[in-house]
Design goal:
Belongs to the UPF0324 family. With 335 residues, this protein is mostly helical. It is 81% helix and 0% strand. The chain has one domain.
Length: 335
């Protein structure tokens, strides 16, 4: 027996996952290449590439690795997101602005849960789309979905949330800077508006710095504060579903990926890490998330996603308008 065959026999669980992990990683590379050379959101490209190959995956040897990537590698990516945020960045925001962002996030999520029933969806779907809209787009959708128990439609609803918020975030990146200038906002106010409303980090940075360096800095700080809110919101989601489960645990432990998120945030805040390590771990987080979303796409057919219907898109658009309206009102209130 060859060395490779011997290794496969000893570690069937690991070797059985390799084809699926490699396939998702290849799609992540392809999505990154397209984004780097032609622009556009990498996560959306990874998602679409994965969905285009969905029909080839069913019953293949890659399925075990795809399942592993969409769950475990996703959680690793979310945990590493914490390296992007330091406590000193959060402190820069100021108490008034921080409270406004917290209220805007909470109100948007509550609105999503309430409006979901109006549009014929369950509260779980409203919580997912509201959280994705309110916090940090696709990353929040993936994290909140990971905190929820699995269901028959969890993957396609997560996929829809990722597609919807990524698309709307790209539109907002183009439309919101002219809106901020039309409303007569200062550079700092415009940055707070952009960072407090646009869903994904990359689009926030692009929109902010398209106005001025000051606007870009303010947008980044506001956005990172919203990303930090992923921890308490996801903890709340986990606790809610744990209490609703058939067996209520007497002790509560947060998900490991949230513990990792807090750990990496604290590690960055020590100021001991060189910038090279911070940028490398941040890039690793991005690759984990892109690879995971490619795997989610591989598991989900476009037909299943379209079954969710146009009313779901209306829900996400309304959630987007709610948080935008709240932040615009707050900008004028703080003057």
């Amino acid at each position: 027996m060859s060395l490779l065959a011997s290794g496969a026999a000893r570690f069937p669980l690991i070797t059985g996952r390799i084809p699926g992990v490699i396939l998702a990683l290849v799609l992540a590379f392809a999505a990154t290449f397209i984004s780097d050379h032609h622009g556009g959101p990498t996560l959306l490209y990874a998602l679409l590439l994965g969905m285009s190959l969905n029909s080839l995956i069913e019953g293949s040897s890659a399925k075990a690795g795809i399942d592993y990537t969409s769950r475990s590698i996703l959680r690793i990516g979310v945990a590493l997101l914490g390296i992007r945020i330091g406590f000193e960045q959060i402190a820069q925001l100021g108490l008034d602005a921080a409270l406004i962002l917290v209220l805007a996030v909470v109100i948007t999520i509550i609105a999503g849960v309430l409006l979901a029933g109006f549009f014929g969806f369950n509260k779980r779907f409203g919580l997912l789309t509201g959280g994705a809209t309110a916090i940090c787009g696709a990353s929040a959708a993936l994290a909140i979905s990971a905190a929820m128990p699995n269901s028959d439609d969890s993957e396609r609803t997560t996929l829809f949330a990722v597609v919807a918020v990524t698309t709307l975030s790209t539109i907002a990146m183009v439309l919101y800077p002219p809106v901020a200038l039309w409303l007569g906002m200062s550079d700092t106010e415009a940055g707070f508006f952009l960072g407090g409303t646009i869903h994904d980090v990359a689009q926030v940075v692009g929109a902010g710095y398209s106005i001025s360096p000051e606007s870009g800095d303010a947008a980044t700080v506001a956005k990172l504060f919203r990303v930090a809110l992923l921890v308490p919101i996801t903890l709340f989601v986990t606790a809610i579903f744990r209490q609703a489960g058939p067996a209520k645990a007497s002790t509560y432990l947060p998900p490991l990926f949230l513990i990792g998120f807090v750990f990496f945030t604290g590690l960055r805040s020590t100021g001991l890490l060189p910038e090279l390590i911070i940028s490398s771990l941040s890039e690793l987080s991005r690759w984990c998330l892109v690879t995971a979303i490619a795997a989610v796409g591989l598991k989900t057919s476009l037909r299943d996603v379209l079954k969710i219907g146009h009313q779901a898109l209306f829900l996400v658009v309304i959630e987007t308008l709610i948080i935008a309206g709240l932040i615009i009102a707050s900008v004028f209130f703080l003057r």
